[in-house]
Every structure is written in C-alpha cells, then in structure tokens.
Specification:
heterodimer; A: alpha/beta; 2 domains; B: alpha/beta; TIM Barrel; Elongation Factor Tu (Ef-tu), domain 3; 24 strands
C-alpha cells in the first residue's frame, strides 16, 4: 500500500524542521498577496530558506497562489512564478486560471495543484484540470468519504484531502468587519481586523462560533469546528489518496507539531498493521482532545454528512 | 475593439452596438412577461443541474413552449445549469443537454467544467456561457475560458467598470454583467455557509442565505481558546450581518454600453411577474434612449422611481466604482421593503365601454387608487369605482387570487398591462 504525503502548514521558517521531524513530508507556505488563509506569512527570502531546509530533509515545498486575482494583480504573477521556479519550489497551488495561463508562459515545467477549496467536487472536473496542466486536485471539504474514494478511483492525477483543522466557509471581497465597525462609528485606524485579533461571530441560533478575519483578499469566515479524521483513515489509505493535509491556520506550532506526529503514527501503523490501528484509534483522538483549544470542538466535517439542496 | 457608435448622415451620434437586455424568468408566465416587456433574452432554470432549487423551474416541455414563444419575438433563451456537481450528479446530464439542444435553447450558463465539456460533446449547437459562480475577476482567466471555446463569460459581481474596460481591451469575447437585483456578498461559488449551518449545499442550489442572518461580533483574548470573550458591540447596536443592498446600475448603463458590454443581466428567477415586468421595462427604456441619442441622454427620475416600486430592499451600485463600504450594506432593519403591491394583470379592455377585464393578484376595493403600467402605455393612476365579477355581480372588493373582475378605467389598456397599488 502506498504511503500518502503528509502536508502541513508552518507559521514561520523556524517551524519547518520541527514539523518535518514530527512527520510532515511536504509543507504549504506563501504570502497573503497571492495565497489564501495561510498559517503564516513567508516572503521571498523565507521561501528560499524554506526550500533549502525542506529539501535537505527530502520534503516538498508548495507555495499558495490560490487567491482570486483582479486585473491589477496580474502584472505581479510572471515575476513571482519565475521566482518560485528559480527557487526550486516543488509546486504552486492555484485556483484562478490566470495562474495557469502565466505559468504556461514563464515556467512551463512548474508543477501545479488545483485548489479552489469549494468547487473541486467531482472526479471529472479533477481530471479536466489535470488535462489543463494540474498535477493534483485538492478536493472540496464539502464532499463525503464515498465521493472522495470514488474520485480517487477515477482520477488521472493526484488527489489531496484535508484531514485535520479549520476550513473556510466564506470569502467576500468586501471589508465586512471594517464596514460593521465603521457603521458603529468606531475608528478603523485603531481597530485591528487581521488574524492576530482572534475575532469570531457568535451564531445564537446554533450557539456556534465562527472565526472571522480580514486581509488583502477580503473577509474570511471559518468553520466552528476542526475536522479530525485520524480514526477514519482506512478508506482513503486503501484508495491511495495521495496527500493528507493538516491545516494549521489560527493554530500554534506546538499544536500543529503534535497533530502531525499523531497522524504520522496513525498512517504508519495502519500501513504496517491495520488491526493495531483499529485498537489505537481511541488513543489518537484522546491525545488530540488533550491539546484541542477549549472552544474548538472536533468533528468529521462532511466526510459522513449528507447535504441536501 | 468593436465599434460602439457611429454618426448618422445628419451628424447625430447613435449607438450601433446595443447590448442585450437579459431578464430572469422562474416560470413560463414570467418568461412571456419578460419578453413582452422588452427583454432581448431570458434565462430560466431547468428541473436539474441549476441553482435555486426552490424556484418553480421548467420541464423540458415548458422550455419548448418558452423557446417557441421567445423565437416569435426574436428573443433568446438561456438555461442555468450552474451547479458544482458531485459524482452522483453526473447521471442524466448528457440526456438533459441533448434535450436542451433539441428544444432549441440558445445557450446554457455553466460553472462546472464537467458540464462545459459534456455540452461541447453532446450538444454542440448550444452556446456555453461561464456562470458568475466561477467568480471571474481578471482578463487572463477570461482568456483561458475563451481558449476553452466558451461563447460568453458572466463576470463576478466584484468587478468594477474600470476592470471591465481592461477585460474588453485584452480579450475578444462576449461579456455579460449583472445590472440589477439581489446578490451574494461572498465571491460566488466561494461560500458554503449553508452547508455548515443547515446541511444545505449552496453550490447545488440549496443556499439558505445564512449571510443575511444576525450574528454577534466578539473578540477572544487568547488565540488558543479559553480566554476572555469581549463583545464588540453595545447592547443598543444593530447586530453584525452581511446583508448587501441589492444592485442597481441604472446610472451606469451609459458607461456599460460605451464599454461594449454585450449583455446586461437582471437577477431574480424567484421574483414575481410584477418585478420582472417593472425592471425589464425600465431598463428597456434606458438602453433604447441612450442608444438613440447618447449625447443628449439624461436619466429620467421617473425611471428611478419606477424601479423603486418593485424593490425588495434598498439598492446600491455595489462594486461599480469602488469596493463597497458599510453604506452598501443593510444593518439593523434589513428586511423587505415594498412600496407597491402587484394587484392585477390586464386580460382585456373594451375601448367602447372603457371596461377592463383583469385577473386579481392582490386585494383591492372601490375607492382605492391604483396605477397601471405596460409597454404600450405611459403610467397612469386611476381611482377604482364599482367592481363586478365575471357574471356582472357587483363586489365589495376583489378578494380572491386569480379571480376575474371588471371595472371602469378611463384610459386604454392592453393585455398583459399590470396594475399595482401603494402599500401603506
């Protein structure tokens, strides 16, 4: 059975070796100007440094360029993609076809991963983007386990699935937090609205808390719970899903490190001895519960939940 | 770039590239009204593969009738087929697309490449238009879709006029943009609030508009949780919400026409025939007036008032000139605002007796003042005197939906003219 990649998101350069030692085999980094909802901000020097560290360990480095670009950002793309190519980044993660168009021109050898987050919902479309040049499709978090397995079985390219962490529920171009504060008559110059401020929306109907922040790409609202599928990995491992992602946005490096180590252990154990994995599942969940932030419950996302329409 | 205007022999400038006015229709009746009130094209939803699963939507036979009707008036029909499909939604897709081609629809509005490719393969005579669900925000992406063989792209609601001009400069493809109606406050296709909050899939037509609900904004002192939670609102403050004002670009129509935008789209497949008729007829007048004499064009305040008569919410120009501020959102009372009710649809008018035959759509009674409008007439008001039913029995009020009633109206009316009355 194939061992999947374990993809994690460091917050800064110093985190990388820690996370790789904990079991990460690939990292996703980038900067807000091009990538969405990143765990940390990596400028060009950081990216070069990250590649050096990760490659020394034999791990891969992917850079996020999955923003929706408006015309004014297009002129920045060729230079940034060329830089990533020269820096030996292993792949670029994109959602907007503009990145594909520019990459074809300036770095045709560069590997691309297609990730719009919400719209990768069937295998045909995954294969469509494969044909257009994407080596990998990152599945939407709103599809269930059966669909993931079916998609992998029918996919021509690689399939990546988020197995742990927060997911995005909403992105607006509008500055919604700032707009509300301005409506309330607050001084926006002193009101922070970034990820640093840990703002959330309380939904009284569901008694749920949704993290919310603003950045260059607009306003983002995140899921109330963290996905945790460490005890349900069998089907995806059997199907040969290529990459398991742990998203560390709005989490500490200590948390990401511990979660990474547990997933690595779980994956290794299943591949070695499926029965032993069955016996140890409860332990994994318990270990994660121990470090789970108080107001963030764990759940299984949409893996076992049907949606209607 | 295509030539937009030219000079007549007597030196007057006229617009030669007139954009399509594209109206919504949730039913066959609305489709006919949209065409009657001046739409060049109408977009409708089928029973499958479209968003708005709550709308009536068209069976294949109804589509056939709609296409035949539209063809008589030189209007086109597009079918929204813009879900992001899951694996299990692939069944029946090819048959459906073949049916659409056979029925004679001009195009489909699509978001998922699965459906784009299927259409190219099995229904090559049907045009493929990229849905706003793809949130298209730059010209490189448009170029990509043009190379993929698409006929037209619908822009993201987040694209402003300057950006549209640049897109037109870089890519030669038909561009469609929204000019009026309700809209997502998120980038379309990038919101799954409904999925999380109600287990309804927003990208397959299940959106329950969670964005318009009320929330409370808090700050947590420590990122890892367990810290103090501070409310960022006072007791008296309106709650946090994400309800955008509806789009209204009447003032921007001249600039959109000058920019060479190919299709101007009105949102609202779920809206009433009154809404479709009012909005379509106003934009018909604006487009026609500007194209006939762009150099002396002025917005008639009556058009603006008329749009307001069917408005569900306050309206704004959204992203047309800048990123919207709090003024383009609704806080506090963000519910419905209606100033007029649709009261009746004209079936017939006898010029000799001046008696109108009308189908009741809302309660009205003698003594009330009502307003009539329609493509053949200038709006006018009328005080209602006696009302009779079909058998000539006098009524104290027109109480029953779809009841046929008769009463006297001083000025001539035509079938499909509409009657509305003010709401207190």
């Amino acid at each position: 059975m194939k061992k999947p990649e374990l993809l994690v998101t460091p917050k800064k350069v110093e985190d990388i070796s820690r996370l790789i030692k904990a079991g990460a085999t690939a990292i996703l980094i980038g900067e807000e100007k091009y990538g969405l909802r990143l765990a940390g901000e990596f400028n060009r020097d950081d990216i070069k440094e990250a590649v050096k560290i990760a490659h020394d360990f034999g791990a891969k480095v992917y850079v996020a360029m999955n923003a929706l670009f408006h015309n004014d950002k297009l002129e920045l793309l060729p230079d940034y993609i060329s830089f990533l190519s020269e820096s030996n980044v292993d792949a670029i993660v994109f959602g907007d076809p503009a990145v594909l168009m520019v990459a074809r021109e300036v770095a045709p050898e560069m590997k691309l991963h297609w990730n719009t987050e919400t719209t990768a919902t069937n295998y045909f479309t995954a294969n469509y983007w494969k044909e257009k040049g994407a080596k990998r499709a990152v599945m939407a978090r709103e599809i269930n386990m059966d669909s993931i397995v079916e998609t992998k079985e029918n996919a021509d390219g690689e399939i990546e699935v988020q197995v742990h962490g927060m997911t995005c529920m909403f992105q607006s171009k509008r500055t919604l937090i700032g707009n509300y504060m301005e409506f309330q008559g607050k001084d926006l110059k002193v009101e922070g609205r970034s990820k640093d401020r840990t703002l959330f929306l309380h939904d009284p109907e569901r008694d749920a808390k949704y993290p919310i922040f603003e950045d260059e790409n607009g306003t983002h609202i995140m899921s109330p719970n963290d996905i945790c599928i460490i005890d349900e990995l069998e089907d995806m491992l059997d199907a040969g899903v290529d990459s398991f992602k742990i998203d560390g946005v709005l989490k500490s490096v200590e948390y990401i490190e511990k979660v990474t180590a547990l997933y690595k252990d779980a994956i290794d154990l299943y591949l070695e001895d499926p029965d032993a994995y069955q016996d140890k599942k409860y332990y994994y969940i318990q270990e994660i519960e121990k470090i789970q932030p108080m107001n963030r419950k764990l759940d299984t996302g949409f893996f076992f939940k049907e949606t209607v329409y | 770039m295509q030539q937009i205007s030219s000079l007549t022999p007597d030196g007057k400038r006229v617009i030669i590239k007139k954009p399509e006015l594209l109206a919504p229709a949730g039913s066959l009746e609305k489709l006919k009204i949209a065409v009657h009130y001046g739409a060049d094209a109408v977009f409708i939803g089928g029973r499958e593969f479209g968003l708005r699963s709550n709308a009536d939507n068209f069976s294949i036979e109804e589509m056939r009738e709609g296409v035949e009707f539209a063809n008589k008036y030189g209007a086109k029909i597009y079918v929204t087929t813009n879900i992001f499909a899951h694996n299990e939604n692939m069944d029946g897709l090819e048959e459906y697309l073949k049916d659409l081609q056979e029925v004679g629809v001009t195009g489909i509005i699509v978001a998922d490449p699965l459906i784009i490719e299927a259409c190219k393969r099995v229904a090559p005579n049907v045009e493929v238009h990229l849905s706003t669900q793809q949130s298209l925000t730059n010209w490189q992406a448009i170029k990509f879709w043009k190379e993929e063989g698409l006929h037209r792209v619908v822009l993201a609601r987040e694209v402003g006029l300057e950006e549209m001009l640049e897109m037109k400069k870089h890519v030669d493809i038909e561009i469609e943009t929204f000019i009026h109606g309700a809209m997502c406050i998120s980038y379309s296709g990038r919101c799954v609030l409904s999925n999380h909050m109600t287990a309804r899939d927003s990208n397959r037509g299940g959106c329950c508009q969670s964005c318009r609900w009320d929330y409370h904004l808090y700050e947590e002192e420590h990122q890892e949780g367990g810290g103090q939670e501070n409310a960022l609102y006072e007791e008296a403050d309106a709650p946090f919400t994400m309800s955008p004002k509806d789009l209204n670009l009447i003032e921007g129509i001249p600039q959109l026409i000058d920019a060479g935008i190919d299709s101007l789209k009105v949102e609202g497949r779920m809206k009433s025939i009154h809404y479709v008729a009012t909005v379509t007829s106003v934009y018909r007048k604006v487009i026609d007036a500007y194209c006939a004499d762009p150099d002396h064009f002025k917005i008639d305040p009556k058009w603006v008032e008329e749009l307001d008569k069917c408005a569900n919410r306050d309206t704004a120009a959204a992203f047309f000139e800048q990123i919207p501020t709090y003024k383009e959102q609704m806080f506090g009372n963000h519910g419905k605002k209606t100033t007029f009710d649709f009261a009746g649809l004209v079936l017939d008018y006898d010029p000799d007796t001046k008696i109108v035959t009308l189908q009741q759509r809302n309660h009205f009674k003698p003594g009330e003042e009502v307003e009539f409008f329609g493509p053949e007439i200038e709006n006018f008001t009328q005080q209602i005197e006696k009302i009779w039913d079909e058998d000539g029995e006098e009524l104290d009020a027109a109480r029953h939906p779809l009841q046929i009633v008769k009463f006297k109206v001083d000025k001539p009316l035509y079938p499909n003219n509409m009657m509305r009355k003010g709401v207190l």
